[in-house]
C-alpha cells in the first residue's frame, strides 16, 4: 500500500514540467514579491534552504543569485529539472522530515506549499527542526493551511497524477510557531479556488 509520501513523490514525478506551467501565473507574480521581502532581511551570501524546491523556478533561480542556496525535493524528476533550470544552485533528493543539519546553519528557510504534503502528525517535529536550523534572527517563509483538511486528489493538474495534502488550520499553526519561539513578521491569506493557504514570514 502506498504511503502519503509515495503518493507525493510519484505525483510530482508524473507531473514533471506540468506543475510549473499550471502555476506559472502565481509563480511570476506572488513568488517574486514574497522572495524579495525575504531577501531584504538576509545577510549577503548567507545560507538558505528551500524545502520542496520542485523544478527550481522561480525560487532557486531568484535566491541562488544572492545566497548560498540548497534546494530539497522528494521527487527525483523535479530535482533533475531543477538542475537543468538552475545549474549554479545546489539540489538534493530527500524527504524533508529525514534531513539533519547542525543547529544555526541557515539564515533563511523557504517552504512554499510543501509542508502541507507531510502527514500532519509529523509536522510539529519538522517545524521545530526548522527553528533549530535557523541562526538567531533567521527567517522562515512558509505557506501552510488555512483550514484543517487531509486528503488526496486522484487527478490533480493532469490525468493520473495523484496528490496528498495534510494540514491543520492557521490558528493552530500560529500557536505552534509561537510556542517554538518564532515571532510573526507578516502573515497573509493567499486565496486559491474556494479556499486558500496562509503565508507566514517568521523570525527566530
UniProtKB/TrEMBL annotation:
Q: Name one GO biological process term.
A: methylation
Record InterPro entries: SAM-dependent_MTases_sf (IPR029063)
The cross-references to CDD domains, in alphabetical order and at most eight, read: AdoMet_MTases
One Pfam match, by short name? Methyltransf_23
Which residues belong to the signal peptide in this entry? Answer: none
Per the record, the domain of life is Bacteria
Give one GO term, molecular function aspect: methyltransferase activity
Q: Report keywords, A-Z.
A: Methyltransferase, Transferase
This chain's protein is named Class I SAM-dependent methyltransferase
